Amino acid sequence: MTGPNDYYTADEIRRRLSISTLVFQGYRPFGEEALEELARNHIRRIELVESPDQYDLSDIRSMRLVDATCRKCGVEVAAYHAYMTSFEGVDTESQRQERVDVCRRQIDTLLELGGTFWCCHAGAGEEIVEKSYVELAQHTEGTAAVIAVENFNSAGVQVEDRVEFLDRLDLSNVGMILDVAHEIDADGVNPMTAAGEASAIINRCGRHLRHIHLQGYRDGDGHHPPLVEGDEIQWHEIFTTLAAIDYPGEFTFEPRGMLANLETLSYIGQAPERLADLQ
Ligand SMILES: [Zn+2]
């Protein structure tokens, strides 16, 4: 077990490692061929990105097919990334209830597939979002599901806003996804690239931090593999701080399109050893 003030071994990182299927988006369809490519690179867990042209996260028949394909390839679903499901454009109470119902069904299929983290792009913490999240939290009570909201570099949804939102909600099954490429300070600097700042952000998230999107970041742009040449992310500080707060979640890597860089999957496959070696 990793205790406070420790660092992670390669084995511990690999056990909790997953990759977002964003890596396939725009390059190859979700399916056996794609999953086998992951398995060949020792990547056994995925965060499934919402992709309505390929499967419907809210439809159990559709998701059982996804589950069967994953199992066949020895891959597990750890999380859903329901990035298209938000409360934007909801004007009436009946529209809101309909949206909550879609979220509930997504969470139900996630649990049936053995996943835990339902990740979404909840809009800014307005009344409508807060009310809906309280209802979703009630729905997941007594299950393993964690509802996680992501930070973005725009007004109302940065780390500080998300932490305030979660402080207000104060629900044990609703937490935060910290995306290490999405926070930019007033000077245009990503604090996760600055020594001392990266740990401050993680500590600010504190008990709310349930999930993390990891990616390399260089020249003002994220979604790179970790430790790629020129990567500015403070990897050692991030993993040291996660260990110190006894972070309970996944290490989910979110590089974009594998054909944009043929080495992407091999970078992710080697990440546990390379990150453990930073100690
Ligand atoms: Zn992300």
Radius of gyration, whole Å = 18 Å
- Give the tally of structural domains: 1
CATH third-level topology: TIM Barrel
CATH class: Alpha Beta
How far do the termini sit from each other?
Answer: 17 Å
**Percent of residues in helical segments?**
25-40%
Report the order of strands and helices.
HEHEHEHEHEHEHEEEHEH
Low-confidence stretches: none
Bound molecules: zinc ion
Average pLDDT metric: 93
- For CATH, the homologous superfamily is named as Divalent-metal-dependent TIM barrel enzymes
Shape: globular
Largest sheet, in brief, is: 8 strands, parallel, barrel
CATH architecture: Alpha-Beta Barrel
Strand order of the largest sheet: 1-2-3-4-5-6-7-10
Strand content: 15-25%
Give me the secondary-structure category.
Answer: alpha/beta
| Total number of helices | 9
**DSSP strand count:** 10
Key attributes of the depicted protein:
279 residues, alpha/beta, TIM Barrel, 8-stranded parallel barrel, two-stranded antiparallel ribbon, 9 helices, globular, binds zinc ion
Task: Characterise the protein shown here.
There is one protein chain. The protein is an alpha/beta fold and 279 residues long. The chain has one domain (10-276): Alpha-Beta Barrel (TIM Barrel), CATH 3.20.20. The protein is built from nine helices and ten strands. The chain has an eight-stranded parallel beta barrel, surrounded by four helices. Strands 8-9 form a two-stranded antiparallel ribbon. α4 runs parallel beside α5 (127-140) and α7 runs parallel beside α8 (235-244). 42% of the residues are buried. Zinc ion is lined by residues 150, 179, 213, 254.
